[in-house]
Amino acid sequence: MDYDTYGSGAVEIAIDLANAQLEAPETFLTSHAEWFAPGTALTLSGRDAGKVRETSQLIRAVALADSQEAVIARLNELLALARPRPYATDHDGELHLHYASADSPALEQLTTTVAMGLSQVVVQHGWQRLGVCSAEHCDNVYVDTSRNASRRYCSNTCASRSTVAAYRARRKA
Ligand SMILES: [Zn+2]
Ligand SMILES: [Zn+2]
């Protein structure tokens, strides 16, 4: 299993975007500033802010899809927004790829990065690797990095909360 692909920031930013509240999409951009080329204006028009929300919903749709066919269809919808023009960089001390042209607008850099990051995971590791948390009252998206693809929760917090709830339910019964 190639952990680097999963651990790569492009996947993390995609998962973060799917789980973000996005009342103010510009806040999302500034909190993920490392993914934007230096000098990129991290501001969005009202229309572009709407597109950030749409992209978030598309990532969620990929995670919710329950067959390879559905994952492919939704992933391709997401990829249709991407304008890849990759370049290698070591701006943070580690050699890695950025997927979008450094002089493209923030929205284009964002959609391209998340679409390419998610596609890498799905194509290399299988369509079941993205999921939605099974805990009650949580619908966070996660990427499953476990060896046997057995993950069901977005976080350890949700996993242990669900274990406790199941234990209580059994004791009550
Ligand atoms: Zn980087
Ligand atoms: Zn959760």
From TrEMBL:
Signal peptide: none annotated. Residues 129-171 form the Zinc finger CGNR domain. Pfam families: zf-CGNR. It comes from the Bacteria. PANTHER family: BLL6575 PROTEIN (PTHR35525). This is Putative RNA-binding Zn ribbon-like protein.
